[in-house]
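User: Thanks for the earlier help. One more: Laccase. Can you show the sequence and predicted structure together?

Assistant: Of course, both are below.
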Amino acid sequence: MENRQNFPFVPFFYFFCLLGFVFIQAEAAVKKYQFDIQVRNVSRLCHAKPIVTVNGMFPGPTIYVREGDRVLVNVTNSAQYNMSIHWHGLKQYRNGWADGPAYITQCPIKTGNSYVYDFNVTGQRGTLWWHAHIFWLRATVYGAIVIMPKQGTPFPFPQPEREENILLGEWWNKDVEALVKQGNKLGLPPNMSDAHTINGKPGPLFPCSDKHTFAMEVEQRKTYLLRIINAALNDELFFAIAGHNLTVVEVDAVYTKPFTTQAILIAPGQTTNILVQASQVPSRYFMAARPFMDAPLSIDNKTATAILQYKGIPNTVLPILPQLPAPNDTNFALSYNAKLRSLNSPQFPANVPLKVDRHLFYTIGLGINPCPTCPNGTQLTASLNNITFVMPQIGLLQAHYFNIKGVFRTDFPDRPPTPFNYTGAPLTANLGTKLGTRLSKVAFNSTVELVLQDTNLLSVESHPIHLHGYNFFVVGTGVGNFDPSKDPAKFNLVDPPERNTVGVPTGGWTAIRFRADNPGVWFMHCHLELHISWGLKTAFVVENGKGPDQSVLPPPKDLPPC
């Protein structure tokens, strides 16, 4: 009798096992993408020119994945330039081979060749992005990465009706690589961009651009999620929508405590998710993006626009422009960034390192070095701790993994060689820097605090600093010189924002903390393309741990040769 009662349970047991297996399979899917790097003619601002694209698209295709998925992207290079793609903000645990920066974790993919970027998306969900990481090719080679939460895990904010990717970029009428070469010959910056763009389109405030305008249709009383990415090369941007409040719910693929604002500030490399409620009188409203610059430097200050259009409103209705902060509104920038806080919930905790094993202090500076071939005999340069980084001829990760000598040194200084009044009057003498491929070695699983200090060498300026392979906590920021005796007492060690790219304020400092639990060679650089090309970059060599899953994975068989 007992046997008979138990009998029906057996198939159910197997059914549940099978169901569990199906769920595991569904949770950890393999997503495959083909990226063909190809040149296409594109017209903007009454100018047509050939640009490098992925699959002929500008911006490129969106990668959609779910937390826990494995991703395979086969990149085939049919353009005349060497190519590499960086998956910005993905941690690539033990797997620097898939990180993408040319000559840091791989040699580039040569014309006619392919490489499969093979990586897992572990413990991350939200908006990230991908872009070319060689020369200035990311001007047109970029796209969004949307990581959905695990099946059955809701957003920690109201479920939106729909979502839209908003990629902010820059457009040059001339060939960008030719402009950069010309600038390098002169020892000066190349010409600034001719327009900013929203999803590759400058909007109707520019000539020949009525048809090059992004529009998003909304229905009254519904809520929308905008995934905003700053893919611009050299400009921090304000973004706003006329008549609508924006509720920030995530930055750099980390949930935040929600707060409402009329505009956001987003630096190159950063992402911000906002909720927008279509609560206004049905009409057409401009979304707008314009640069923030509070230093005495010239920039492309033109406004890109797109349209938020309520359903049923004809295209003949003229859109309303939003009130963006003034281009030099430092107070808005500082107060906006001060509002950013990690959600720090039981499900999404902020595991801030409280004990620090290694204290680092890096100054960020511009400089002038001799250049015998330049008309003035000098060229502009940039540095960290007065060291201008020299790119190697082979990937640093290969040199580290195979113990190839003579490629890099691990003596990058923990603090500047000569302390000075970093943010006093502009310094215009002794602006030479030291050149070298110098890295900093970090012990596995050690905790690092890095203070990034802007300086007035030539000029103060805001610098968005990006660290590969990690998120970090922005525990403190301030204007002027960092004071090690007073400032740490004001650090937020409870719910600081967790990011992969942070804006160091003009004439100020930012303190970040992270746990070095990802072995490999990880690039850290300014995300202003001009400064990265001038040498404002370095890398951390994070040593292997003792455990079997605490060392760099072996390189893939198809890693591009040098």
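User: Great, one quick takeaway?

Assistant: The chain is about 10% helix and 35% strand.
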